[in-house]
Amino acid sequence: MSNSMDDVARDSQLLFVIGSNTTEQHPVFGAKLRQAVLRGAKLIVADPRRIDITDYATLHLRQRPGTDIALLNGLMHIILQNNWQDQAFIEARTEGFDEFRATVEQYPPEKTSQITGIPLEKLYQAAEMMGTLKPMAVMWAMGITQHIVGVRNVMTLANLQMLLGNMGKSGGGVNPLRGQNNVQGACDMGGLPNVYSAYQAVTNPEVVARFQAAWGHAPAPKVGLTVTEMMPGLLDGRSRALYILAEDPLMSDPDSGHIRHCMEAAEFIVLQEIFPTETSRYADVLLPGVTFAEKRGTITNTERRVQIVRRAISERGQARQDWQITAEIAQRMLALRPALPHGPLAGWDYSSPEDIMREINALTPSYAGISYERLERGERLQWPVPNMDHPGTPILHTKQFARGLGKFMPIDHIPPAERPDDEYPFIMNTGRVLYHWHGGEMTRRASSLMALYDQALIEVSPWDADKLGLAADQRVRVESRRGAIEARAWITDRVPPGMVYANFHFPEANANELTHASLDPVAKIPEFKITAVKVSLA
């Protein structure tokens, strides 16, 4: 997030939620957004489903799946038509406006309505709210990113906020909501194939030299593979072995049948986990990690705030801290290569998470001023924190963008990779439900949660149920070009006609048996949110 949850909830005059089921998937922040509405902020929700937070919305835009860019361009067209843009901000802080404007002018309201399915009056109402209620904060999640145009969707949201001058202001900003509690921290620490920690490019010679001086050795300066490239790489030799830490690809990756085929081809798989997951049957070695309650360390949450994790109970059985397992494996590998050059930080001989944080301070500019001592004192530190005297940065881009001027990007609508046809006439959307999390390895072991939601449900609209002859609680078969699942139907107007919604929490009816691995060309994220399916009585 460019902003903080508190300033969004306190100072926003308008909240725009798109591609985020906030109250179910980020319930703490979802509660803050509800409180903001109760204090007087207005709320626009753009989502094909009637999710719970729409009960608090002034306006619900039910766009067709995969039409977010057309929707946003159409709204910006109306904003420009009425001179609601922040021209002073555009001239002082941005570049590329004319080319961007020429693209947006190709999305008049009538065309936008035709593409998105949103009535004209709602487009005009939304654009007027955005143009006149400032600051506006934009929130999104995987409903925006899990598309073949995920990166382009995000760029278009940035265009919107620059157009309106909502960047660098309390109550404004671009605010992606991270999918899990330390996704932000994992990315910050270089858990991506193209960067070291703090998003320092692996291809930058100065960056490589810095890490080589610290470690004595650095990998070749080339971009590695993403998860969605590693898996098919097992079939063509680009990948040969996997070390999987706290991830269950059999449940959470697209096209589960293909994932099984890939994992069968792997020469060696190590799985570091707390439970025997669906993936564990393919593992050659199982390493017992620890649960959240047994961990010490830090996480970085969705608003870039570093928080201490304190251990509540001791490790059980043979389980060990994840960092200890990884460090010992690294030490044993280094022992096999004694001639490898060693820098001052190359030994992997940490004695505590504090030791690791000191290495982070030395090599990660945005974390240089974050220490356990400061966190224990209760300081609220949001990166960048460039030195030990710096108070942190609750709001990004207050004076300039990371690149200097913000660059408007001309972005056109591109249809989804897979669209309904006569054989597969429905669109399936996927996601999580309030009571379960991802592959369900923890939540399906909680009897209280299972009492509330004990099996996979397929959301079907009343109109489609009537057309199918489907009665309440009957089972349906949902089939794509890759597989089929059967589950109980939930007849609900949460989904529009022509769309069904499924989750991936239950192995016996996992929506990812049906999804496809068409990827965003930049981020390599799969298009989980749009799969063409057929639906019939089971």
What would the keywords be for this entry?
single chain, 538 residues, alpha/beta, Dimethylsulfoxide Reductase, domain 2, Rossmann fold, Barwin-like endoglucanases, 3 domains, 6-stranded mixed barrel, 20 helices
Concise description?
This protein is an alpha/beta fold and 538 residues long.
Q: What are the low-pLDDT stretches, counting only 5+ consecutive residues below 50? A: none
- Briefly, what CATH class of the largest domain? Alpha Beta
Most strands sheet: 6 strands, mixed, barrel
CATH architecture of the largest domain: 3-Layer(aba) Sandwich
Q: How much helix is in the residues?
A: 25-40%
Number of structurally distinct domains: 3
Please give the alpha-carbon distance between the first and last residues: 43 Å
Please count the beta strands (DSSP E, at least 2 residues each). 18
Order the strands across the largest sheet as they lie in space.
Answer: 13-17-14-16-15-18
The tally of helices reads 20
* Beta-strand residue percentage: 15-25%
* Overall geometry: globular
CATH fold description of the largest domain: Rossmann fold
